[in-house]
Design goal:
Chain lengths: 261, 262
Amino acid sequence: MKRKREVLLLIPSFLGFFIFFIIPFLYSFYYAFTRSAFDMTWAGFDNFKILFGSEYFRLALKNTIAFTIISVPLIMVLSVVISLLIVQFLFQTPLVKNAFFLPVLLPSATIVMVWQAYFSNITPFASLLVMFLWKYMGLNIMLILTALAGVDKNMLEAARIDGAGLLRLTWSVTLPNISPLLFFTFILSMVNSLKIYRESYLLWGTHPDTKVYMLQNYLNNHFAKLNYQNISTAAILFFVVIYLIVAIVFRLEKKASEQIW
Amino acid sequence: MVKRRIVKITFSVVLIALAVVMVLPIIFTVLCSIGIDFNEEITFSLEGYIDFFVWKPLYLKAYLRSVLIAGAAMFGTLLVSIPAAYIFAKVPFRGRNFLFYIYIIVMMMPFQVTLLPQYIVSRYLNIYDTLYAMILPGIFAPFSVFLLTQITKSVPGEFLEAVRLDTSNIFVVLTKIVVPIIRPGIVCAAVLVFTDQWNLVAEPIVLMETIENYPLAVLLSSSATLNLLGFAATVVFMLLPILLFGFFEDEITEGLGEYRLK
């Protein structure tokens, strides 16, 4: 079968991915079960006990979950709505689309400076949330616009002839059609919600307000101390949680796109 | 009809207002770069730009390195990711979902987790403190494989099957059929990969030690750069990705025009 051989096309990508990402990833699994950087003996699950015993870790975990649960759905809804509105009302005004994309290009130091000059009196949690939306919404809008540009026009036309209204058309034709890219946008938003740490660090240093002490602060403080066992152990927990989320959302995406194809 | 107009105008105004909010800090940066700072007295000056292009070669060299790193990573990643994405999206094989999950999960890992082992690997491969230490991981990063797979999924299956009856050469299928269909997606991926590499700060610091090897983003990331030169460098820093974004915009405009609901 010729088809079988096609899988070989995966090899260039996978080989590099294996060397530069999987091996480092496996390394960190190994670290999680050793005593310390200087004493690489088997530690069993001691590192996990230490991690969960840490008050800072529990605080970071709690804050990160709170931030993700609020910020990710918010940015998803806003990005989808704004994208649809741009296409509907302003698609011939190129500057508008550009405007949303620009913030992601500003270095964090500049963002933080503008922030300190004009918005320093709102709460830390709200600050991070607004900065997150402001900085990353453009990326999402860009991805959603790409998906919208590729929607099958015949399908839209057919639904329109069947008498579907604008909302109905969006809900039952457009959104299922772009669900693979919505899935990607969702995952990317989760990644980016963790990256807001860079701004947090420049604003408040290594120990910010307890409301915004996130996993990345925790990881970074231990990274600076070269406490690798701690980071790796946290990474494994990360892995388990992320695997579950990805598996669930992936199923949902499949269901949504099967309605169509 | 009148009601429709009102709706259109209202939404347009809201969107434009939002867009202005998005751009304000950038305008602010541009003004700062020519000496117009609202906190202090205004002194117009192009000193920052002259420093950047003439007197401080460290910045210009860093800029060229950024172009090299982001450019190489962008082209390289498209080359390996487009075929991989096609396989993930259209050719079933055992373990496909699991492997795909691994790509996604690795993409989601915080950099603190994988950076130190990446440093060890780069030492081992003898590319530590060279541009390759940035370019190679950039090429093989899972981001573009994941994105392009999601985009390739929208290529109709029956259509591909029909094409395959005509030719059995997979490279013909890829270059003549798949790539033209997903072109907007490819351009989108290219812009995002470029921007991502362009903005990296933590990675160069760990994977390189010579300051003369650092890309521009690292030099701009500390608050010590909040002066004329720093702002001028930031403005120059933003120009190239904005230019790329223009290409992307041309690419999707036609598709969006057809999509518009009447």
